[in-house]
Structures are given as structure tokens and as C-alpha cells.
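note to self — DONT lose this again. spent like an hour looking for the file last time. sequence + predicted structure for the chain T wanted, 29 res
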Amino acid sequence: MQGDLCSGVETDGIKDKEKIKKVIEIVRQ
């Protein structure tokens, strides 16, 4: 169970980073 929760948090973190990168790119434009 703990492994699944950890992996879920990691994937969510990656998605958040990708969203932040997209926002930064839009702001720079």
C-alpha cells in the first residue's frame, strides 16, 4: 500500500512540474 501511495505522489509531482513548465513558457511568450 505504501509503495502505491508513494508512486502516486511522485506521478502527481511530475504532473505539477510539467504544468509549471507550461505556464512559465506561456508567461515568457
